[in-house]
Specification:
heterodimer, A: alpha/beta, 4-stranded mixed β-sheet, B: 9 helices
Amino acid sequence: MRPPLHRLGMRPKLELLDKPLIERILEEAFQLIDDPGVRVVPYVEDLLRAAGITVKDGVAHIPEALARRLLDLVPRGFCLYDRLGKPAVHYTGDTVHFDPGSSCLNILDPDTQQPRPAMSTDLVRLVQVAEMLPQFAAQSTAMVCNDVPQDIGDWYRLLLVLWYSEKPVVTGAFSAQSLHTLIDLLAVESRGRENLRRNPRAIFDVCPSPPLNWSEFASQNLVDLARAGVPAEIVSMPLAGATAPVTLVGSVVQHAAECISGITIHQLAQPGAPIVWGGAPAIFDMRSGKTPMGAIETVMLDLSCSQVGKYLGLPTHAYLVAGDGRFVDAQVEMESGISTVLGALAGINMISGAGMLDFLACHSIEKLVIDAEAIASAQRLLEGVQPRGVSLAVDMFAQTGLQGDFLKLKETRALFRKEQHFPSSVIDRGLPAPDGTSPDILQRAKHRVDELISTYERHALPSDVEQELIAFAQRAGAAFGLKGLPGILNPDLAPA
Amino acid sequence: MPNDTLSAMRQSIIEGAPDTASSLAQRALSDGMAPIDAINNGYVPGMHDVGEQFARGQMFLPDMMASAEAMRAAMAVLDPELRKLGTERPTAGVVVLGTTKGDIHEIGKILVGTMLTAHGFMVHDLGVDVAGEKFAAKARELKADIVGVSALLTTTMRNQKGVVEALETAGLRAQVKIIVGGAPVTRRWAEEIGADGYAKDAMSAVSLAQELMQRKQQPELQQFM
């Protein structure tokens, strides 16, 4: 008996590892976190010892049984919420989301297309463009603002994103102290820590130092995020051949060991706190000593590491969509396009990196809008080839016969919008430009950026929240020489 | 001197064979070869060959690490002999290396240190998370020619400026050249903070160090206080 049509069709998927290999990866990962163990700092030693973990000379030897019990406590899914309280990012199963890459020092200047230090106005511009693109379910604290004192840079970037965007935020702290300030800022926006815990507005990336080393601030971040109920995203970064085994599978083992050990610390601090199995692994180029994010082996690492996390039933993250070329050119977009599609097929819950180039050193808003087209294509791909209607084709042939006038059919009119994704003007589909010119993709991307900025409309926060955010920023920034509020225009007036 | 021995020494470096390099050094000494001859005519040409092959894309980083290991093995045999004779191998320069305060990444720095050592520099690696004052103190102690500061993070890169300032405060700035490097670092950043140079990888760090040493060979070279 044939299955009914509505049961046909599949979600496309890509996996690189078979089950026996995943189990072997986990077997060795559990072995590594016990022997040689994981380097830890005094801040977490008591926590680990209280759980029965041996800590000697700064090295924790984590038994597999305990690690597995703690892995079982991790929530299998959670959401990030937008400013209006709607769930916007679903960290679960094979749902796929994208966000811009974060913490760049430089931006590719839109006029000169040369890299220069990023400023707060650049971050604002990127946030506004990403806000207008449905391909991005979340924002990120994308750039370091060089016009803001370094000591307050972490939270100031977050303030700008919260000011100009309603989307949830992928962010991170670079010190134990600044994490508390970032959480306080989020609590202001959410009107309290309990609201923030219930409807998290941001997730924090936390990075171990390869190999198998949880630094002071990373350990504190894990513990403090767990106890605050704010989601954490482990971003393990093995460099295959340099700070991790040269084999891809060996680096996947190290990634698993770092994630498992991080989850151990996190769950001991607060059982059941939300955390993501994430990473930014890469190969170490043996000619240049660089870490190519666009290399196919890097992409394979990301996919494999995520697949191990999925095998454990955990939410996943990876760094993809970034290119290594220094300009918005064919190389960069080839690299970004390949990794976008593969990451989507792998079902990774949050894929960070759009807009980035030059080995993650630089952001380009023009690249961001081009990447958005690749993301849209990937999202269409994930919808798969689906049956629609009563039959697959014979009913339509019954109407047209061998004349083939499919364009006139009511099915065509009813279904073409579901079947076809329509890219923006960034993609040349043969339509003439309004001014009769033939712009190249960079020019089309620039035009698209201008178009998105011109249609962006800031939705103000409630005035009492805005006043509190401004007061917070002025208070916290004064001691560090913050002058005015870069990127926030006319804070004393009604928002634009 | 036996050319085949010198050729074999050169080849042991190219092949990255530390045991061979070490045993050849031992045999050369037993045969009465002057250690400085073995170094200058056997092993150093091997390192030059390695540098050229790397620049041509015929050798890769793991090959260079193996060659540097072979050089280290040979020098471990020859250096004590030089000291016994009352001479020391002329160093290309004294370098203090470290990763900047707040940063614990060091793979690039290790590569730089390895290649500088292989090219005759005396390298003292302070490790990671090193404050500017510590760089300055070690530079003073060793009468360093060059301080090399690495940073991998955008946030810790700024502490490289602290190293420049620390050397200025210590009154060493005129005598000590500063090289910066690391993933987020650029030539423009190096100029902005007043460093003497930026190296994008290990081999260019060697070239830059050699160039800076050439510039230092000035009659008006200032003495350490």
